[in-house]
Amino acid sequence: MTARTSPLQHVLLAGCGDLGERVGTLLHAQGTPVTGIRRRPKPHGLPFPVLGMDLAEPDRRHELPAADAVVIAMTADEPTHEGYERAYRQTLAGLASILPRPLPRLVFVSSTGVLGDWDGDTVTEQTPPSPKRATAKVLHSAESDAYAQFPEVTVVRPAGIYGPGRTRTIDRVRAGKPADHGRITNRIHSDDLASAIVTLLELEEPPSLVHAVDRAPSTMGEVLTYVAARLGVPVPEDSGNGTLSGKTIDASLLHSLLPRDGLRYPTFREGYGALIDAAEAERG
User: pTM for this one?
Assistant: First the structure.
C-alpha cells in the first residue's frame, strides 16, 4: 500500500456535513480540486463549491463532474430504518447512476455499529459483522451495495466520533448524568478521522476495509473521570453493574497507514483536553 504516483485530479464529497467539510478543507489546502454535494447547501464560506442535489432522488438530466475519487459521508435525517435506507442505500444507487463512466474509486464512511456486540472481544477487520439494530443492518447492506456498485471501494468504520460540535460526553459530565462506567468505548476525533480519509484517498492501493478509532480503547469510567477532573466537577454516578462490557476495536491497520506523526489526538485525553481548553478560552 503506497502513496499515489500522481496527485488526485478531483474529489467529490457526497454528503458535505461536518466530516465532509473537514475532508474537503484538507484536500483543498493541499491543492486538490474538490466539489461537495448535499441536499440543502448552506451559504457559508467553504473554500470549495458545494452543489445542491438530493442523491437519493437525483435528476438524471444532470451529470456530476468527472472525478477520480468519491467520499460518501452521509448523515440520516432520522435514526430509523427508513431514514438510513434513504441516506445510504438510495444515495449510493443514485450516485452510481449519474456519475460519469468509468466509475471512480469510492471511500464509504460506515460505522463499527455493523459489527454488533462482541462483548469482551477484540474485533478486527476480519471479524464477521453481526448487526443487531435495524439501522446497523441497513449500513451493513449499504457496505455490500458499495462493493457491488463501484470497482474500487474502501469502507471506513469509525466509532465514537467526537470533536467541535460533538461534545455529548462533556455535556453528560457537566450535567452529572449517570453512565455505565464498565462499558468499553472506542473513539476518534473528527479531525483525525478526516485526516485518515485523506490518507486513504492518497494511497495507490488502499485496503478494502479499515476500522477508524484512536489508540486508546477505554472504559467509560476512565473517560468520565478524566473529563470531570478537567472540568472540576464530580464524576457522574455509575449506572452499571460493576462488570466490563462492550468490545475493543483494533485499528492497527489504519494506524500503520498513517504518516509518521500519526494521530493528532491519539487518546481521549488529548482530544477532550483540547475541547475543554478551547471552550475555556472562548469564555475568557
Answer: 0.94
